[in-house]
Specification:
By secondary structure, the protein is an alpha/beta fold. It is built from 14 helices and 13 strands.
Length: 466
Amino acid sequence: MYKPYKPYQIFLVIADAVFTIVVFMAMTQLRPYLPGRFVHPEDMLVEPSVYFAAAVLWVTLGGFTGVYDLARLPFFGKQAGRFTFAHMMATLVFAGFLYFSYREVSRMLVVYFALVNYLILFFTRYALTRFLRSKRSHVRRTNVLIVGTSDTATSLARAIVDKLSLVYHIVGFVDDRSNFPSCLAGLWMGALDDIPRLVREHEVELVLIALANGESHTVEKLVQELYPMPVRIYVVPDLLSLTFLNSEVDSVADIPVIGIREPRVHGTQWVIKRALDLVVASVLLLVTWPLFALIAIAIKLESRGPVIYASERVGANGKVFKMLKFRSMIVGADKLQEKVVETDAKGRPVFKTIQDPRVTRVGRWLRRTSLDELPQLFNVLKGEMSLVGPRPEQPFITKTYEPWQWMRLAVPPGITGLWQVSGRSDLPMHLNTRLDIHYARNFSLLLDLKILLKTILVVIGGKGAY
């Protein structure tokens, strides 16, 4: 819901780590000249690992206590209390850590460090929220479409305008009723059947369903129509029992809503997963750049055409992006897709076959070793993909999806995933989708690490790669 603020979330995490290290180093140098028991400057030498431990501790406890939650980021009042609590906890844990490991560190140094660090990090949050408010017009707000013109819908809209105008922009209201309130005449956008068109035309990212009692039977149909589109869906909870969907309770302007399309990865888990993606992808790019050059030469020597193939894929929440791969097929292979599609015993389409005539000789080797996937590291750096996640699907395949299959888009697509370590292309398409949905429903950082380790073994074995 607060996706435009994710860059500022990352900035805050990095700022906390950097300022914590800088403040600790500064206090170490200044301690001999500050009030308290005299300490000789030579006695103030601190192991570098202590600085690193302080930064990790402050960021980790901040993450676990919700300091970096996106819902609090634009509002200083929501941050202040939670940050103060987290800082006190970090100070106590840090003091205990020093007591049991580095007892030579001055106790007054810890006190001075904790006070100064609190003031600097506290001011950083205040300055960030002031900056966001001053740059309000430059921060892209989430476009919101409200379904319904009931009292609940209008109350929800007023609450958003009063409390969350920094985050949301209400595009308008949609309802089949002809007797909608006169105050909404200028904001009425059309009927329920117009919603897909309105979502596309106005780049709507959030749909809030607040239909009047008696109209809730249309919600399930509406949700199914919106699944193929890159929007998040919320429903006011007293309208419908949504036990048939994987949902979670949230709030918009203090009004409880049920999230139908909320991301499975959020909060601290998202920060850690994103940090892992950035670090590993950056390291792999630095290590494998000579391999990039060799592969590019091999592709060019065999056939004319571009080295990198960019194809449209459907990512998290249905958003389309350009996925990068080393070209492993002849130029114009997309136009021959229909000629190579096969069907299984139950009539289901099979889009990837072993003897695909479009694949080049170099391409077969790249696919066998999975090296054709290397350019996707750039997609990971851009945030379009993750190291681990469901396979990024082609738009023409998602058009054949049943409603339940769209659940796999609750998390970002990955370079590797459960289906890659469970049989890869040897698995039928419907089993691939079920594995992706299983991952989306059971995501954890531990599961990501297990998949990454298994991927190494699978790539070495080469089973199911074609």
